[in-house]
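pinging the channel bc i need a second pair of eyes. not urgent but kinda urgent?? the chain im working w is below, pasted from the shared doc
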Amino acid sequence: MHLSLPLLLSVSLFGIGVYGLLVRRNAILVLMSVELMLNGVNVSLVAFDVFWAEALRAGQSLAIFVITIAAAEIGLGLAILLLLYRMRGSIAIDEATDLREDAA
């Protein structure tokens, strides 16, 4: 198997995620962009695990670990967004100043 095609997919997923993270103002879309970035990392981990099948056996287990962390991150992120929506009536990131500490 050629390693360039999965890595190209991985880089494109990660790049789309970075672009969405930098450009979007909606918090749900920012969380989706973070998920795209994590999925790009998962694709590269599994691709390297398949490419180096004899020497390395950690790619798939690390991908499962990343999926678990991503699920926990989305759960906490959505809980924070629901609380923010109840308090402010909006989930725009620019208006989310309630979570910031005041300078002393």
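so The chain has a mean pLDDT of 86. and Residues 4-93 form a domain with the Helix Hairpins fold (CATH 1.10.287.3510). — does that match what u expected or am i reading it wrong
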